[in-house]
Amino acid sequence: MSDILFTLQYGVGNCVQSIPAYLNLKKKHNVKLVYKPIYKRDSIKRAEFFPDKAEEMSVEDVSALSKKMDYIANVPFGIVSDRGDDFSREPLDLISEHDSEVERGLKMSEWFGCGKDIIRDAVKVENKGWDDRKYLIVHNGALDQNWRMKKYVLFPRLVEHIKSEFGIEVASIGAKDEYVKGTVDLTGREMMESAWHIKNSLFYVGTDSGMYHVAGYLEVPGIALFTATSVSKNWDERFHHTITPIKSKGCRYGQWGYHWHPHCSKCRSGMIYHPCQTIDPWEVIAEMKEKLVD
Model pTM? Predict the structure, then answer.
């Protein structure tokens, strides 16, 4: 049995996709869970959906603590280091550039002899007196300007098609600035309330952002809209098996595994919206008809 420092960092999606690795490691090892802010915008609130409460620690404090541990598990990248010094080669050699974040974490837990199970009952999402009406939930995520290319610019048009084709009431979740025109406004809520609305929903449609991963963990049927980001990196066939990814056909560049094509960075630098953001709404409607019938 080893003492492992498990470091959560970055956004909601990164944290949610780290849950399987963390729960597997806990089966056989002593795991210390911390949230390590990397950027000024980072907040421990991004880890609120995690099954255990993380302790927020500075980069300096994490570095000091790592000296007392046997290993440091760096998620979502699936990297293991020995006391914070040299990276262990074996987990890295098992990982592919195009493995999903979930798979990278599970390969890391497998390296520790803990298996690769997807454990879904660890996070309890219960109604705390919130609105219990059933909506089709949408989330036009990616509030951060650095990820603006994740947004789906035709979401308002898609919502109108959804309402006319299915007669379903549609509601938005996420930050206030992520509200989608024409929907019931459930934005600006705490994360667990948003998770409740996802769990209680008729269907989920969202961009490649944190709440889509929550929907995948909760096994809610839905669609993930991928613009510039990589499906192989951000969709896992086991973890997200109820969510169908739809990838933009508007641009042949974008994210390749964990890296960006050079032309994509040029495109991102000065455009109001990008060719990769214009997924045909009728393609989404057609997929919804297939899934809603099922």
Answer: 0.92
SS3 content of the chain, % helix, strand, coil (to 5): 35, 15, 45
Give Cα 292 distance to the centre of its chain.
23
Count, in order, helices (H) and strands (E) of the chain.
11, 13
Give the tokens for residue 118: 């997807």
In a domain, 248, yes or no: yes
| 3-class secondary structure, 3 | strand
**Cβ atoms of 49 and 192 closer than 8 Å:** yes
Q: How far apart are CA 256 and CA 251, in angstroms?
A: 12
Are 74 and 170 found together in one domain?
no
What is the CB neighbour count within 10 angstroms for residue 181?
A: 11
Tokens standing for residue 87: 């990276």
Residue where one domain finishes, among candidates 78, 111, 144: 111
Confirm whether 123 is domain-assigned.
no
Joined tokens for residue 26: 């806990």
Interatomic CA distance for residues 116 and 268, integer angstroms = 36
Residue 168 tokens read as: 């379903």
Same domain, 260 and 143: yes
What pLDDT tens digit does each residue of the chain (294 aa) get?
A: 889 999 998 889 999 999 999 999 999 999 999 998 877 778 888 889 999 999 999 888 988 888 888 888 877 666 776 654 555 556 667 778 788 999 999 998 998 999 999 999 999 999 999 999 999 999 999 766 667 778 899 999 999 999 999 999 999 999 999 999 999 999 999 999 999 999 999 999 999 999 999 999 999 999 999 988 889 999 999 999 999 999 988 776 777 777 777 777 666 555 566 777 789 999 999 999 998 865
